[in-house]
Amino acid sequence: MPELVFFSGTMDCGKSTLALQIEHNRSARGLQGMIYTRNDRAGEGKLSSRLGLVTDSVEAGEGFDFYAHIVAHVSAGGRADYVIADEAQFLTAEQIDQLARIVDDLELDVFAFGITTDFRTRLFPGSQRLVELADRIEVLQVEALCWCGARATHNARTVGGQMVVEGAQVVVGDVNQPETVVGYEVLCRRHHRRRLTAAAARAAALSPDVLPVDPVSEPTA
């Protein structure tokens, strides 16, 4: 039976790499897929991985209709055996409904990849709808790590190396960016709550003690 599968994880955990691997495995067996993405780091109409792999895709903008696009493609003599939708967190709830309709009405597997929560730990609308509709949710097993070495569970937005918790939900960026620009960092829950990024931790380690301890007085005879 065809499925709507949501592959979820933090930034830097290999979602796009897995999307490209699924595309490779299926195309190697003679299947043809439709690949969609939105706001990819490599630019419009690209699906890319941080490992350096990249392939062409269809840019799914704000008013894009997945179901209508697939139907038009097939009606024009094209072939579609499955669908890959990367950066699915940026899609609208209505677009996720369209992906579900592709599964139910056209009987195609749909593989959606995305981040569950934003830099404020709030659900993205697209991810929320996927959680509500997906036949299966897979949390990626390649664990991204916080600077402290613990498993990273949250995405932090940084400006000048400092974590920020206000601003537009969607600001395109990437991990490991220069501290002078808007970037992202994956953190464990403890350090996300404390707003303690790698840069902030380094600064704290280099700072002098703010609460010096007085020497213990020797008892007098």
UniProtKB/TrEMBL annotation:
Residues where substrate binds: V170, V171, V172, G173, Y184
Active site: E87 (proton acceptor)
Keyword Transferase: yes
Top EC class of this enzyme: transferase
InterPro entries assigned: P-loop_NTPase, Thymidine_kinase
The UniProt record lists the keyword Kinase: yes
GO cellular component: cytosol
Single GO MF annotation: thymidine kinase activity
Record keywords, A-Z: ATP-binding, DNA synthesis, Kinase, Nucleotide-binding, Transferase
Pfam families: TK
GO biological process, one term: thymidine metabolic process
Reaction(s) catalysed (UniProt annotation): thymidine + ATP = dTMP + ADP + H(+)
EC number in record: 2.7.1.21
Entry's family note: Belongs to the thymidine kinase family.
NCBIfam families reported in the protein's UniProt record: PRK04296.1-2
This protein's name: Thymidine kinase
Organism this protein belongs to: Streptomyces eurocidicus
Lineage: Bacteria, Bacillati, Actinomycetota, Actinomycetes, Kitasatosporales
